[in-house]
Amino acid sequence: QVQLVESGGGLVQAGGSLRLSCAASGIILSSIVSINTMAWYRQALGKPRELVASITSGGSTNYADSVKGRFTISKDNDKKTAYLQMNSLKPEDTAVYYCNADRILTTDRVMGAKEFVDYWGQGTQVTVSS
Fold first, then answer.
1. What is the CA 32 to chain-centroid distance, rounded?
2. Average pLDDT for residues 83-101, to the nearest whole number?
3. How confident is the prediction for the chain on average, in pLDDT?
């Protein structure tokens, strides 16, 4: 099995910064072989979940128009971790932020290879006060 664990959320004043982390890891007897695209989504109260930023295995990035110039997505392949640096935060950035991996390939000591598709973390709350 695998897990995506988000961290770094919290309460910040408008204009402040936060850095979110999403660490992918195997659990029990599984280990991660590869991850395709990783992305950050967010869901504000009463709103649908929306894509914030994504980064491919090759390092290509994409951002929602609302965060361009303020947010930066990056990754550490060795640590199997994606990051979202959020600067100049606005109250409208308040949401639960979710990490997503579109494809995770793992190998299990006992069960062998397994692929996880469209895999989500549990989310981390970001609250930006005025």
1. 16
2. 98
3. 94
In whole angstroms, give the CA distance from residue 78 to residue 34: 11
Question: Residue 88 has what DSSP assignment?
Answer: S
**Burial letters 67-106, b for 16+ CB under 10 A, else e:** beeebbbebeeeebbbbbebeebeeebbbbbbbbbeebeb
Alpha-carbon distance 51 to 16, whole Å? 21
What is the mean predicted confidence (pLDDT) over 57-78?
96
Which residue type occupies 2? V
- Do residues 123 and 42 touch, judged by C-beta distance below 8 A? no
Strand 81-86 relative to strand 18-26: parallel, antiparallel, unpaired? antiparallel
* 6 class by beta-carbon count within 10 Å (0-12 exposed, 13-18 middle, 19+ buried): buried
